[in-house]
Specification:
Elements: H1 2-20, E1 28-29, H2 32-60, H3 77-101, E2 104-111, E3 115-118, E4 120-126, E5 134-135, E6 140-141, H4 142-156, E7 163-169, E8 173-180, H5 183-192, E9 196-198, E10 219-221, H6 230-246, E11 256-262, H7 271-279, E12 282-288, H8 306-310, E13 317-320, H9 326-335, E14 340-343, E15 346-352, H10 354-379
Parallel strand pairs: 4-7, 4-11, 9-10, 11-12, 12-13
Antiparallel strand pairs: 1-2, 2-15, 3-14, 5-6, 7-8
Helix pairs in contact: 1-10, 2-3, 3-10, 4-5, 4-9, 6-7
Amino acid sequence: MLIEWNEFVVFLKTRAQELGETQFDQVRYGDVGMALVLALVISVALLLTLSRVAFWRRGHSRHHSGHLIDPKLQRGAIVRALYHSPKLLLVMAVVVLLVAVSDPFLTATEEVMGDVESRVRIDLVDTSLSMAWEFPDTGKSRAEVAREAHLQFLEMRQEKNDRVSLWLFSSYPYMVDDFILDDELYYFQVVEAPYVTVKLLAPQFRTTRDQIYVPEDKVRIIPTEGNTNIIRALQSIVKHFDSDEATGGGQANQHRAVLIITDADVDEIPEAEFQALNQRNIVPYVIYINIRDAGVGNAEVAETPPLIEMIRNFGGDYFDVTDQDSLVHAYEAIDELEAVRFELTHRAIKTPIYSRFLLVSLALLVIGIPAGLVAELVWGTHP
């Protein structure tokens, strides 16, 4: 029994040390939604309980006798603090438990050796001002709808060993990272990327709603940004593909792809750039954030944008975000590309750390519950 207790103490010390060494600014959360649901349930239960207690006290309250209580018999500040401290511990335990439920994890990379068959793709995400405006009847920005579709597509492509590079574009293109062969790491890059890069976050013109639908932490204010210059972005991507091919990252005549995620509200039509992609066997695809068929009655968006109409002329295709099956079609289109063998040198590791928070929550409960019982026995009936 003593040996088992010693092992348990060592276990507690190890977990406590791990928690103390945790870099909390690097922690990511995989299921915040579940934590929010649980928090809502706990809040409702707490409100109902407090309401019931208040009602019970009102029905069973007695009038004051009129006698003054000797100050010596009243609780002092220290006693009141000790009496209420177990409740504070229980609140802290619930908060830490909610953090554990949100599936916290850390990421790291490890070196690996081996070859994999991969398909090469650049994801080009529109972060212009128009993406900050509402996607009709959702209360979400077009950028948020686009991000959800992008992440859903990436989840479908898990374990397909895609070699992908993430790019953002507004007035100018920005490469988040070069080609990588790591599903997890790339997924995290997309999650962390901003929704919009603009010089000024302004509401949609000619609308009666003066609202912004993008969270502040997903906005990057850059004085030179805000337009939708897809020509400049595609020119940079063509150069990057050429550079990658020259350094051995790609292969001549290899079928590669550029996946453009946009509302197609672009400044100019990139016909010459599509032609340059076509000459290099780079297939353009668009995940189209289609506001035309999403309940908008505006005549200005009633026609299919020229960018969408012309993409099939260059061997590409578009996938309508309002179509339930469109992402499946996008997955299949990428899957038809020629796979090429690449050397794998490193990969991301996802390390769950929910147990560290569960341990803290358990420790707070183990201390708080007995302490609360003792406090009630000692001071519960004290004035």
